[in-house]
Amino acid sequence: MAPGRLESPITTLPDSSQTTTAPRESHFINLALTKTLPIPISGKGIELYLSDGRTIIDGCGGAAVSIIGHGNEEVALQTHKQGLQLAYAHPGAYTTTPAGELCQFLLDGNPHGFEKVFLCSSGSEATETTMKLAKQCAFEKGEPERMHYVSRWQAYHGSTMGAMSMSTNLARKEGFEGLGYPHVSHVSPPYAYQYQKSDETEDQYATRLIQELDDEFKRVGTQKVLMFTAETVGGATAGCITPPTGYFRGVRKLCDKYGILLHLDEVMCGVGRTGTFYAFEQEGIVPDIVTIGKGFGGGYAQIAAVLIHKKVVDVFRKNSKPFNHGHTYESHATACRAALAVQKIVRRDHLIERSAAMGKVLDAELRSQLAPCKSVGDIRGRGTFMAVEFVKCKDTKESFPPELRYGIQVQRFIHDLGVDVYPGAGTVDGIRGDHILIAPPYTVTEEQVRHICSVVRQAVLEMEAVYM
Ligand code: PLP
Fold this sequence. Notes:
The protein is of the alpha/beta class. It has 15 helices and 17 strands. The strands form 4 sheets. Strands 6-12-11-10-9-7-8 form a 7-stranded mixed sheet, with helices on both faces. The chain has a 4-stranded mixed sheet with strand order 3-4-5-15. It has a 4-stranded antiparallel sheet with strand order 13-14-17-16. Helix 3 (about 75-85) packs antiparallel against helix 12 (about 335-350), helix 13 (about 350-370) packs parallel to helix 15 and helix 14 (about 405-415) packs across helix 15 (about 445-465). The longest helix has 22 residues, at about 445-465. It is globular, with a radius of gyration of 22 Å. About 45% of the residues are buried. Mean pLDDT is about 90; it is low at about 1-35. It binds pyridoxal-5'-phosphate. This is Aminotransferase. One of its GO terms (molecular function) is pyridoxal phosphate binding. Keywords: Pyridoxal phosphate. Belongs to the class-III pyridoxal-phosphate-dependent aminotransferase family.
């Protein structure tokens, strides 16, 4: 055993977690009081073992979080060791070794020009941080009139007030209409399946979307817009929508023209999910700010990061003002150690390349296995980040009535058959966009991919027998 390593791996759970064997009423205040949730007692690889004896194949890594699978002993040991050594030191007064190493890991040999990292605990915090960073940057530049953010329809950037204002996942905003930051407006996302016109080329579609963004910047006032925020590959709300070629190059050009910051939210699609560490690497552009989360800690730590380009950092440097923002648990030592351990495994085991390769298998399997399904309108995505959109009629692309909650029903059916996928609906303009998202850990095998797809097929065919 290497010096400093623990004598015995922590693979056994404390007794208390083993004693509950039946689903219990949820303790979460945001779920209906009557709702019961299954209890995963442990997990290994892409399998979750529930208290009722069932095994679930994790076909979506939770919410595209678990990138190296469950129960990784290396990560558990590293985290345990860090906890024994130092779990916490106040981030206003100290920088811990794991936080430093993690930032170094992100910035080392970095070809994109990011110079600083803000480590926080969730994707929502990362969005809030980015919004405030953009505002202070404009202020330091002597542009205090920049107060407005533009984001896109069918997007999710988090559940806190600022992040919710940037988000357009209508279901998540229900009951909170009118709350949040007031100076936010939205433009169309690149959602070719539902919105690209039949007589429009990909190039023309990209041009139309960029023109809409230009029009929105002008409507608000190009001197008043702070930042444009977009998911590089749209995740949960619209279901793995990929941009048409040239879209982000056009967006970048427009932001540069007007001095508007470009923030790409890669909380869901980043850290190798689409086959490259950042999804924007496939777009030929670099944002001013990129946010990552989910796969960054791989489910082993609650951690997210805001990476800030030199262009923005220089504004702060020039004006010698620190960023006026912080959280008690930012750059938490054990969270950073866990994330670093996850990322080192990803690098050592070439898991991003594996995400790209398994993504090809997943794409091909979904297409062949779902070919007979009448309700499967579109299969799209990149890497191990794939969505299946359901429609009532393939010719018209008409969606199922929203009250049917077709996508959610399919997801529940799949769960009953022992596989987890992630449900979603991109409600806007009366188009529901029912879909499921499939995003397994990058460690998934070809056989497991085939199994996930065959279960999806079985569930969809059975749903169709009832509803079509
Ligand atoms: N941004 C995107 C693109 C997301 O998908 C999410 C969560 O689903 C968030 C931000 C918010 O992250 P969190 O749930 O960690 O606050």
